[in-house]
Model the fold of this input.
Amino acid sequence: MRKIIAFMVKGIIKSKYVLWLSLVLIVFILLLYGINTTQSGATKKELQATFEKRLENIDFLIGRALNKKRNIGLSEEAERGLDSLLIQEEYLKTIESKLNDEDLDISSENLDYIKEYSVYESTISIPYQNIDVLHIEQRKAEILKKYNLSYTEQETPYNTALFTKKLFQLLFSPITAFLFLLIFIYKYKSDEQNRIFDFLKVKSLSNPVIYYGYLIPFLLIVVGYIILASFLSFLPPLVTGNLKTIHYPIEVVVGADTLMVPVWKWLLYMPIGWGIFVSLLLVSAICLFKQRFSMGTLLTIITLPLVIAYIVSVQFGFYIVNPIHLIVSYEMHLLPTHHFVPYLVGMSVLLIIFLIASYPVFKSKGLYLKVPVLHSIRKQYAPKNRWKLIQFEHLKKKRKGHVLLSLILLVGIIGGTYIFVNQQYQNLPKTYLLVIEEQQNFYVEQQMHWKVLEEEFDMEIEMMRADHEKSGEETEFVSAENPYTIMIENMDLSYRLLDDLMNEIGEKNFPEKFRETMNTIRKEPSYKELDRNLWDVTVMASEEQQRILAEKEITPWPIGPLWISHFQDPSTALNDVHYTILKANQERNTKYGNSSLFSVYKYLNWNMMLFGMGVFILLLWTSLSDERQPNPSINFMKTKTISFRSIYVSKWAYNLMIAYGLLVLCGGIVFLFSSLIGGIGESQYPILVYATGSYEDGFTLELSPDVTSNESADDGVFYSYGDNVNFYFESLLMLIMKSGMLIMAQIFFLNSLFSLVGRWVKNQYVTIIITLLLVFTGYFLASQYTSASYMFLNPFTYFDTWNVVDGWKSIVANSAAVNFINGSIILFVSGILLFIIGLLAGRRKA
Done:
């Protein structure tokens, strides 16, 4: 076995791909380092905004206290409160000065400030901070002070252990795990075709020795990759002397609690868990290869248990025996405590059991589930009578492995989108907690202002009482009831409601309770009661959508009640303050879900189909240039009674058939499994659709006599005076069907373009590059010059699928001609014209 291992390791080390892998890792890390270096500073700005707000509140309270002291004097408790405010002000000014000097070592000052605030709150004074948030800050500051650390960039780190953590999340992800599996599979098939295993059997080696000797080098490669990736990832904090940042605390939400977890737990868990997971995949794969399963069957057998494990994780929560937590859904359950140690030990034992259990499989000779077929007696290709050229094209792509690889990549793109959407849904407890804390902070600030007004009102009453007594009037002074008291009580009630709601985070029916509580404390007037100039799309669409949902008894998507329109997208911000407001509003009202239809909606909204089309161009599609280079067969084809036009048509038709077929197959598979996790979803969910035109243009029909209603007689068309645009609602299913039709038209056009380029170019790789350049250029021009009068004729304008079907593209282009129907027609007609040009073009010399 030692000689086999040495033989395999020697061959792998000599491979140029090992050097390429190292170079790719280095370039990737340097690229990410450079990007994060230029974008760093978000955490500093967040800290500055937080402490500037606190300093502003303190200055306000100090001014109010001094004013009261000058007029009627302060009690002993109020004097202590004022002294405490003055001390807090000094701490905050020190912190602000440090932040302005790019010094984030403020943990000691922050702890002193929090301690002083506790003293202040014990006096008869006005609170201005959420004490729960301060407790979280205190725990974090105590850890930072303990390890002599300063606050550091968390969003885009570049020279600390947080940068290493971000790299680990990319390098030890499920994607890289399955890439290793694919590399192993293709290497095994290549060695099998090169008769490596037959050569080893000639040396009188037993099957267990051969297969263990073949498996162990790949397990060593996994270990080597972990060591190399870990070393390169640790270089930035090592070189900059920030290795101690492995103790930096990161907030992890568990239910209603926020726990502090040091970075080193991620850095320890991720590579070990990833290594065990990949090793389990490799052992399973080689055992199945020993049973002579085909590549497609092997991938299916390996993938199904993982999908089932993921479904179990989502539906029933964390189980210590579930290996899926080696790479996903582990932070909340394992890292806050030391439970990850026994879990990793248990998974290591499972790997050892797999290795031991593989021995009888390797040793067996008659357990083959599929009888091996020698290449010498392999069944010859026997096409059916019709569509022989198309069958031949499919056979070539299938034998090259392009069909299977395209299938895997499409499933990965579509399935990866669903997993990402579902993971966001699983992280909803953290999102709920942040929204509740933000709302509580708002109420605390409002209470502060109302209490100031309450005290000023009481002070005026006391001064009036004193003046009355000084005047000597015999009539009794009647004190007026303080109008601000009831407001403070309402604020306090809302705060306590949110506090109770926070304790219920994690319960099954929490989204419904959250929605009910928010509706109770947020009593906003209808837009119909406001001035018409304030009728923007976000306000109107949100209210009308909620009304439609209530009428149809459809559960709204969490989390916020507003449907943020494109007019309030953060990219439209006028300045930094405006951007912060729009960004916060968008985050509070982002929609989450785990149903199949919601995932399809997100897939289309993010325009992920562009990556699928990239797979078609790079791997799946063929053209006449494929017969010239890199594998010339054009001269052989000249000897056959087959016209060039027949070959051109067959390749064009095959591209369409295989693209449509794989897209339906992959989408159907992912849709089925996602339905098992989150259900199908609400097909009639109302989605906002924009309509070009304005009230002045006469697009919207005349409003009904009821001035409180803005719905037109055109069955649900609304006009926004604030944004000067019409809109209406359409069902989610209808928009998905329109998107599907538009995607079919996009593939049709793209295939004709690819075939035409391949008709005129001799090299298939050049055909791919030219097609990609044309697509990129066309899409770029369509995005940059959308408002040009002629741009609606550009087919690439309609590659922005969701923005076309929901009407936003027509708003940007300021043209009703940019719509789903015209887009489909232009794409299909353009595709037909390109196909005809290629069909009628003169023959290119070989």
